[in-house]
Specification:
- It is a single-pass type II membrane protein.
- Among the domains are: about 55 residues, no CATH class; about 50 residues; about 220 residues, Glycoside hydrolase family 3 C-terminal domain (Rossmann fold, 3-Layer(aba) Sandwich); about 130 residues, Immunoglobulins (Immunoglobulin-like, Sandwich), CATH 2.60.40.10.
- Helix content is about 20%, strand content about 15%.
- It has 22 helices and 30 strands.
- It is globular, with a radius of gyration of 29 Å.
- The N terminus is likely disordered.
Length: about 1150
């Protein structure tokens, strides 16, 4: 039945303060349609029944404690979501040809796994009344296993959840165990012992993993140990470490001797100078060995924020009742494909929740009857805060109505440092402020509905090549190396705003940061995220991004996903029963485990999921059929239950929001002689107007779901590929929408949906619309020779030749050509954009299911062309600089990418080196014209160098009994029926559980000083105090209604210096030419003016000082405040 509307989506504001996020009052639907199931089930953990933990085929009353929404939750409410969990998914990353067919394509279907549940379902009716302009093309209802055309893709069951993956998993497991991960996998009847899986890591766990010496058994085909060690020690990269060490040691000895001689000669000043030189040169020598991440221990405990205090109080009461295995069950996923969602945890007798975690950033992955929203990059191109919030809210509605607790999005990493990066399209653009605003608005929207959002991927997940060990023949994942300042000012900035927006979960990434894996990097998680940013939620791993057991726990990881540790779906975990043993033998302190559990449960309470109707998810990620298995990853599960209820969560309003975002995210780059907007009835002199539509990208191809996870480039491009993609309910192609728009007799529309066009097809056209694209995605899929990261920035599938041919031959050179580009990121346009025949260019990004309708809205002027570029379009890939190049090949066993210029991302690099881009960041034309005037600024307080000192919280974290109990109480219950490959927290035996003194890692200092930059959500609360208020007048000087984006940039004072400690030497601080600090978007009638007011905070005017380890505001010199419509079109400037 029809649902009430939320009213207008966009009501342009005249005042915008970035980051004024409010405490969330979750909107709990008051008029939910109640669906009463005949039975319910969820993943549960109990010692009293052999079936309660994993459930067998009978489900009635088996799992009553799972807190989930009704099947129709929120559908009738007006206010009623990575990595990604898998985000990164969850597919086995393609290593060479191990899992490719003869064509080089993947034949694996690797999806993630959910929570067990079954229930009946009643159809939910939605409003399907058409809305929009008369040219609206109503969606075709494509079947999930179909595509609305002539070709039907292979159903999920035949795509393989089991047999096809089994052989690869076994070879992957052997590779991981024999070559890269040194964990000892014992026989099925013996426990397995913790040891480090990352011997290269500076935060190595070898000596900390277990009081028991790891045991290893010989494995068939394994190299001799001496040979492996020889390779590890004398590999190419390691020589730098050895050389650096000896250079530093020699310099140390020599300078010490010289200093002693000078000192005895009464040259004490010389001694001091030499001592300082000693430290400097020794540091340089040791630095040759590579970048390392410093340790930060112990993990800060949650529950110190007033905003979360009540949630932590409730969590404490629940966690206090839990047994040790219950606690471990909350922190460890049940395993790949061991439930209905891509990630699942068990419920417990203490009433803790069984959580369903599901991708992704633009909609629900592996689910039916959902909305395929425009991608993050398209959303960023709108520069519209209201649409960002509306999209998030719609994502939350659909997630909750499907029974999802944790939505694995939004993504703000990749940041887009590398324009060819495969996953840039999931995020919002190549600027920290644009990313931060879009992420925070999305999070607020999702969590307003009560669904937990996930900020991912933390951090520096900038390329797909080498993100996983062994995928490219290397033992270790790539290390993204970066300095502290660029890390804070660019890559961590959006996560700080996400924490301020109260995000429930943060997902750590696959790759290393400064040679320490992201999910066990204590500086990143403990030091920056939990201490400095004051994060109160839980940190989850990307799927199989956990690289160690004890080390990851001590470094701040709270939840392991999907639960499997070293390989997909093999039933072996780094946590699970290993974490139970680690708590018993004291290698993981009970205080740390209690905090892990409390953070997860507190988030569940914080978003009032304890008030949800107790149902599980009403869909299965692993089958399109109504009946299926609850744990398809286990060969022991022979059940057949109702796993798909086919609940339709698409509200008509969601389609309209998707359409509006796609339209406002379309950027008009070129428009000669007002070629656009088009007329629906403009005839040529002979009474006929001939229009040709050219290119594969204009048509439906084989359907939107013909390739799993959109892992191929065919038909119109509406999404990138990977775990961030969804199965489209329908896709309106440009060809279909244009034929509907030009349905009157005077216009003759002909379509040539191929990239190979004959001259005769072009000769008679008055107007030619040519479509081309550039695709990319996550690295576990290979398509057209692209391994996630694009190989270059050119149009694909012969797109350059197609555009050139059409532009030169349209109407035998007399016709006009309009080019439409769909792309995952920047495309080099120079080969063709200046051709005389190219009259207009539209950059439509990735528009989602309403692609054609949204394009028609812009082409015909039903809405203004108001999109602005969320990145810079250069004239070549080299324009973006050396640090922006993907590392495609390496000889190192530990690939390295040095982001030395990370502070100068995208337009900042172009400005610094005075490179003229083809189109700058923030650029976009309109169908009307605007005038900026009367920029005024007002100081709100005096400049002061540092924020106020951090205030100590008067709220103490929860306290528990630190005793783990007796080992025998954590054994499998008698007569317990186990499912193969399911991850259990129970012990197999009590070996290795005797408590002892544990040698914690170097730097494990329980009196670690908290960061002065911290003290509240996102950082020191004074960082968000207003320093400067500004206003600017904007006037629509044209003849059409239009929308303009007001962009505010800041240039820092010149000559800012810092002193170098006792040497008192001065270092001048380098700044980008200008940086975006705020923006707003308004709508104006012809002749209308509005004064837009904004505020700049202390943080907006500060830089991160590596020496002070704090945000520093320069107090001398003049700031320049710029206002305009792009990073290079800034007509107004004022000084502060």
């Amino acid at each position: 039945m029809p649902r009430p509307s939320d009213g207008p989506i966009v009501s342009p504001k005249t005042s915008a303060r970035r980051g004024d996020y409010q405490s969330l009052d979750n909107e709990i639907p008051q008029d939910e349609q109640q669906l009463t199931p005949t039975s319910t089930s969820t993943s549960s953990l109990t010692k009293d029944s052999e079936n309660d933990f994993h459930q067998s085929s009978t489900t009635s009353e088996r799992l009553a404690s799972r807190g989930q929404p009704n099947d129709a939750d929120l559908l009738s409410s007006d206010d009623s979501a990575d990595d990604d969990a898998n985000e990164d998914d969850v597919r086995l990353r393609p290593l060479r040809s191990r899992n490719q067919n003869a064509d080089g394509n993947h034949n694996l279907d690797t999806r993630r796994g959910p929570v067990r549940s079954s229930y009946n379902h009643r159809a939910v009716l939605v409003d399907d009344t058409p809305s929009g302009s008369s040219s609206t093309l109503l969606p075709k209802e494509y079947e999930r296993e179909g595509n609305g055309n002539e070709e039907i893709p292979v159903p999920k069951e035949q795509r393989d959840v089991g047999k096809r993956i089994e052989g690869f998993l076994e070879s992957e497991r052997r590779t991981l165990l024999a070559e890269s991960f040194r964990t000892d996998i014992e026989d099925a009847n013996t426990d397995f012992v913790f040891s480090d899986d990352d011997e290269f890591d500076y935060e190595n766990e070898d000596e900390y993993g277990s009081p028991i010496k790891p045991r290893r058994r010989d494995r068939e085909g394994e190299e001799p140990r001496w040979k492996r060690y020889w390779s590890a020690i004398f590999g190419k990269r390691t020589w730098w470490h050895i050389g650096g060490f000896f250079v530093g040691a020699i310099l140390l000895i020599w300078i010490a001797l010289q200093g002693l001689v000078w000192y005895r000669g009464d040259r004490q000043q010389g001694y001091v100078s030499f001592f300082l030189l000693l430290l400097l040169l020794n540091g340089i020598g040791l630095g040759l060995g590579g970048v390392r991440s410093v340790p930060w221990y112990p993990a800060p405990m949650g529950g110190t924020s007033s905003n979360w205090s009540e949630s932590y109080r409730k969590a404490h009461d629940m966690v206090e009742r839990m047994s040790l295995v219950e606690k471990v069950g909350v922190t460890t996923g049940t395993g790949w494909q061991m439930g209905l969602c891509v990630g699942n945890t068990v419920s417990t007798p203490s009433d803790s929740p069984s959580l369903c975690l599901q991708d992704g950033p633009l909609g629900l992955r592996f689910a039916d009857n959902i909305t395929a929203f425009p991608a993050g990059i398209t959303t960023g191109a709108t520069w519209n805060r209201d649409l960002m919030r509306a999209r998030g809210k719609s994502l939350g509605r659909e997630a909750r109505a499907k029974g999802v607790n944790v939505l694995l999005g939004p993504s703000m990493g990749a940041m887009g440092m590398m324009p060819a990066g495969g996953r840039n399209w999931e995020s919002f653009g190549s600027d920290p402020v644009l990313q931060a605003v879009a992420a925070a608005e999305t999070i607020q929207g999702i969590q307003k509905i009560g669904v937990m959002a996930t900020a991912k991927h933390f951090v520096l997940n900038e390329q797909e090549h080498f993100r996983q060990p062994n995928d490219w023949g290397t033992e270790y994942a790539i290390s993204s190396n970066i300095g502290d300042r660029a890390l804070h000012e660019v890559f961590v900035w959006p996560f700080a705003e996400s924490v301020r927006a109260d995000v429930a979960s943060v997902m750590c990434a696959y790759q290393m940061v400064n040679n320490s894996y992201s999910c066990e990097n204590s500086k990143l998680i403990n030091g920056i995220l939990k201490d400095e940013l004051g994060f109160q939620g839980f940190v989850q791993s990307d799927w199989l991004a956990q690289r160690s057991g004890v080390q990851s726990a001590l470094s701040g990881l709270d939840m392991s996903m999907p639960g499997d540790g070293l390989a997909w779906a093999n039933g072996e975990a780094l946590w699970g029963r290993q974490l139970t043993a680690a708590a018993l033998n004291s290698s993981v302190p009970m205080e740390r485990l209690n905090d892990m559990v409390t953070r997860i449960v507190a988030a569940w309470f914080h978003f009032r999921q304890d008030q949800w109707a107790k149902r599980g998810p009403n869909f299965s990620s692993w089958t399109d059929k109504k009946m299926g298995k609850l744990h398809p990853g286990s060969p022991d599960d022979h059940s057949s239950e109702e796993v798909n209820k086919f609940v339709n969560v698409q509200e008509s309003q969601h389609a309209m929001i998707a359409r509006e975002i796609a339209a406002e995210g379309t950027v008009l780059l070129k428009n000669i002689n007002n070629t656009l907007p088009l007329s629906r009835t403009a005839p040529s002199p002979d009474g006929k107007y001939r229009v040709g539509i050219f290119g594969e990208d204009a048509g439906p191809g084989k359907g939107p779901n013909s390739c799993a996870d959109r892992g191929c480039n065919q038909g119109t491009l509406a999404s990138g590929w990977g775990s961030g993609a969804v199965e489209f309910p329908y896709l309106i192609s440009p060809w279909e929408a244009l034929e509907t728009a030009w349905s009157n007799d005077p216009v003759d529309v002909r379509s040539y949906l191929s990239n190979d066009i004959a001259h005769q097809d072009l000769a008679e056209q008055d107007l030619c619309l040519v479509f081309a694209n550039s695709d990319g995605g996550e690295g576990f899929i290979r398509s057209d020779g692209i391994n996630g990261d694009r190989n270059d920035l050119f149009l694909q599938r012969n797109g350059v030749n197609l555009v050139e041919s059409v532009a030169q031959k349209c109407g035998d050179g007399r016709g006009r050509t309009i080019v439409v580009v769909h792309s995952v990121g920047p495309v080099v346009l120079d080969p063709w954009i200046d051709l005389p025949g190219v009259h207009a260019v539209l950059y439509a990004n990735l528009p989602g299911q309403e692609s054609g309708n949204a394009l028609v809205d812009v082409l015909f002027g039903d809405v203004d062309a108001s999109g602005r570029l969320p990145y810079t379009i250069g004239r070549s890939l080299e324009d973006y600089g050396p640090a922006a190049q993907v590392v495609y090949k390496t000889d190192d066993q530990v690939p390295q990418v040095d982001l030395d210029d990370g502070l100068y991302i995208d337009y900042r690099h172009f400005d610094r080196h005075n490179i003229t881009p083809r189109y700058e960041f923030g650029y976009g034309l309109s169908y009307t014209t605007f005038d900026f005037s009367d920029l005024r600024i007002k100081a709100l307080q005096e400049k002061s160098r540092l924020p106020r000192p951090r205030q100590k919280s008067d709220i103490a974290p929860p306290a528990y009994d630190s005793s783990p109990g007796l080992a025998k109480d954590n054994l499998f219950p008698s007569n317990f029926t186990r499912l193969a490959k399911y991850i259990y927290p129970y012990l197999l035996n009590t070996d290795g559980t005797d408590p002892g003194k544990y040698p914690y890692p170097e730097g494990y200092d329980e009196k670690q000083e908290p960061s002065e930059a911290g003290g509240g959500p996102g950082g020191n609360p004074s960082l968000w105090e207003g320093m400067l208020e500004l206003s600017v007048k904007v006037t629509n000087t044209g003849t059409r209604v239009g929308k303009e984006v007001i962009q505010i940039y800041v240039s820092f004072p010149e000559g800012v210096v810092e002193h170098r400690g006792i040497s008192k030497s001065r270092e001048e601080i380098d700044f980008p030419v200008r940086v975006l600090r705020n923006f707003d978007k308004i709508s104006l009638e012809p002749g209308e003016s509005k004064t837009v007011e904004m505020t700049l905070s202390r943080k907006d005017l500060s830089y991160w000082s590596v020496r002070a380890q704090n945000w520093v505001l320069p107090t001398e010199g003049e700031f320049k405040i710029w206002a305009g419509r792009s990073s290079r079109d800034l007509p107004l400037v004022a000084e502060f």
